[in-house]
Amino acid sequence: MKTAAQPWQAVIGLEIHAQLSTASKLFSGAATAYGADPNTQASLVDCAIPGTLPVPNREAVRKAIQFGLAIDATIARHSVFARKNYFYPDLPKGYQISQYELPVVGAGRLSVRVDDGRTIEVLIQRAHLEEDAGKSVHDAFHAETGIDLNRAGTPLLEIVSAPVMHSAAEAVAYMRTVHTLVRWLGICDGNMQEGSFRCDCNVSVRRSGDTQLGTRTEIKNVNSFRFVEKAIEYEIERQIRALENGDSIVQETRLYDPTRHQTRPMRSKETADDYRYFPDPDLPPLTIAEADIARERTALPELPQARRVRYVTELGLPEADADQLCSDRATADYFEAVLAALPGQAKLCANWVLGEVAAKINEAVIEISAAPVTADGLAQLLTRLREGSISGKIAKDVFAAMWNGEGDADAIIQARGLKQISDTGALAAAIDAVLAEYAGQVADYRNGNEKLLQFFVGQTMKRTRGQANPQQLNELLKQKLAGN
Amino acid sequence: MSLDHAAVRHIARLARLAIADDQLESLRSDLERVLHLFDDLAAANVNHLAPLAHPHDQTLALRDDIVSEDDRSAQLLALAATAQGGYFLVPKVIE
User: Fold this and answer.
1) What is the ipTM of this complex?
2) Which of A228, A321, A326, A367 could be stapled to A308 by a disulfide with Cβ–Cβ 3.0 to 4.6 Å?
3) Of the candidates B10, B67, B76, which has its C-beta nearest A24's C-beta?
4) Tally of domains within chain A
5) Statement to judge: residues A183 and A260 lie in one domain
6) A158 three-state secondary structure
7) Is residue A178 domain-shared with residue A52, that is, in the same domain?
8) pLDDT by residue (tens digit) across A289-337?
9) Which 209-268 residues of chain A touch chain B by CB within 8 A?
10) CATH at residue A437
């Protein structure tokens, strides 16, 4: 019989590669645009032509500083570019310029909300600048591999978390938080299909209470939140099963196969981890002036975490609404622009932004910035709703018409004659007609069947084609039914 | 620090150098002498000094984020041993 053992605990750290959204590369003036014909954006520097020298991109450094400040990290006044040496056909120099001992961004932290409602603090050990490699195309050629160096030299920020997460859900929540942050700051477009945001997952397991980490495996280049979750879940289970069978874990690099939902070992490169880093003699240390750091600090936008807290404490929004609005800066800004025209109506504005607007955006698969109904347009519509000019149901119809480009809210309300009937005389006439038509039901109501009120409301709405002011209708109906 | 033949082979493989067995011993002793030199350096007391990444007292010049390079793929591909469809071709690499 087995002795009762402590349950297993997974330990996860992520290395996230965020492509910095610069126009030109990290060390050359070649373009970084996605999708160009192969090798048309490869400069002499990117191709490692002898005699060329790298010159770093100021904007990439600036974006790294912005990230560092946003995670409350120390920005290194002096940092060093180092060569990471390995041979691979899509790495023409035979080394990648990266940072090793002295990265530009030191230790910081990020507050992460997990799906189950908990908030965890994730320690970020460092973030460093490095260049991307080129792309190898394996399937387009028969006996050869094609090399496209357009991506070679593209600036990346590698964001390295401490091994502090304990489930796939925590790791994905952290990855989403970083994804939101880099997009919020405008330093990375976050496009995962194009590889602008991808992640290596380091996973190990140990018995709860153990202080030593177990042997870890690294799952390389996972490029979707769902795949990260599946890959980590699979890997945790695989390691536990192996250890319970008395096997040991081999420290290795694994690949995630999304069709089988499995990880499998990469063909072993026995010398892969022997990178022989050393400071790049072509590049003196990167020095960042205190004044430059101060300027970036001043220019930093209100961060998603701070805004989320403000929405809950100052605007009184539910946490779930605040979370959703702050998942994307453009959405939060849109919401605030609508709210500016409707002070005190935060919940109404949130409901519309997260309801009608979000539904249409998802349906059309566009960004909120491209929505045909602008924040000002929505604000006008909601103002009419608040005034009582139109009902909530009509407002949705008007919104759909606005989305289809039929004009602004006022124009549509006017053109379709949708203005709510708030005129007591007209409403009273409609009610009288309904009560006359359904005399039997009126008698039932007066005998105590008060549920029939909704029936009369419905009939009057029908007669007014939905344009009756609901509140007024209710009041008038009750009065009339009471026999006044 | 001393080196054995296995370490020499490992270093050669990292550097993609083919070395013959009869070169091993002479390379091993040469490299070992180089390493002994580093042992001497390591013996110096540098506790009061910050690590020096670069011998010159220079700061890095940065450039503005401007695309300054045109498409030179025709010239670059012409330098390659084999190229096709805009790609450099290399012997099949499969992960």
Assistant:
1) 0.88
2) A326
3) B67
4) 3
5) yes
6) strand
7) yes
8) 999 999 999 999 999 999 999 999 999 999 999 999 999 999 999 999 9
9) 255, 266-267
10) 1.10.10.410
